[in-house]
Amino acid sequence: MFKQLYKRKMAVILKAAIVGVMSFSLWGCGEEPAQEQITEQAATVSEPSAESTAVAEVTEVAQTVSEAGFLDYDMVIGDKNAPIEMIEYASLTCNHCATFHTQVLPRIKEKYVDTGKVKIIMRSFLLNGVDAQATVLTRCVPESRYVTFMDALFTRQTSWYDVGEYQRLAAIHDQQTAGQMFVETVMTEVQKLARQVGMNKKKMDACFSNEAIGEYIFAVQQDGIDKYKINATPTIIVNGKVAGNTYASVEQAIEAELN
Asked: Where are the alpha helices (DSSP H) in 81-172?
């Protein structure tokens, strides 16, 4: 299951992001995770000066990791003292989550959050390796830019996470090569969006290297599984009760709590 897979692989995934190339199997919203494949590209350094440069770069990243914090707490939209708490468990690569975020959430925000009745807590629920990498980056942006980054990732999801492109690559390459090429393409686009909210390469490398971020993300996910039996995304919780993910169902759940 995901818990065991995560514990074995997550630290390796985050470290490999600096020095290697990763390949992942892909699946959709709410489906069971498949076994992840990770390959590292071996580098041969013939020049001592190049080796020294590489060591210096890794050392610099390590120092950045030790100095940098990350968002290890819930991100809240709205008044933190609002009487109704709505939790959204979502995957960045889930198309249903993107639809909820772009079409349903703005209506909820206008009617309930902006009027001080509801606060929204955004929590990640990982579905695949791409999801894991992108989610890690969301935890390293300044808090004031977290929602902006999440909005960009969901709004532009089809441009950076194009499953059709993976299928095209898989038709002409073996699975591992296709996965590797797809992940590289996806993360290049995600990192472009990260730069728009103030991240640079040094900070992104440090973010991928920080194992504590992965541990935090997994703990949040496991808590959702334990408390709410979550097995699909998006899952919406209103004052501790699982609600549907349409506007009508969320509205009904909120109104029931207000009455």
From this structure: 95-99, 105-108, 129-138, 146-155, 157-160, 163-172
Q: Hey, what's the torsion of the CAs at 54, 56, 57, 60, to 10 degrees?
A: 160
Q: What confidence tier does 68 reach under pLDDT thresholds 50, 70, 90?
A: low
Specify the DSSP class assigned to residue 81. Answer: T
Burial class for 99, CB neighbours closer than 10 Å (0-12, 13-18, 19+):
middle
Contact between 37 and 179 (Cβ < 8 Å) = yes
Using CA atoms of 181, 131, 137, 233 in order, give the dihedral in degrees to the nearest 10: 160
Q: Which of these CATH numbers, 3.30.428.10, 3.40.30.10, 3.30.70.270, 1.10.10.10, describes 75-258?
A: 3.40.30.10
Q: Which of 153, 140, 143, 156 is nearest to 77 (CA)?
A: 143
H or E element, residue 124: strand 118-124
How far apart CA 139 and CA 43 sit, in angstroms, is 30
pLDDT (tens digit per residue) in 99-158? 999 999 999 999 999 999 999 999 999 988 889 999 999 999 999 999 999 999 999 999
Structure tokens at 222: 């496991």
3-state secondary structure of 117: coil
The model scores a pTM over 0.90: no
Q: What are phi and psi of 107, to 5 degrees?
A: -70, -40
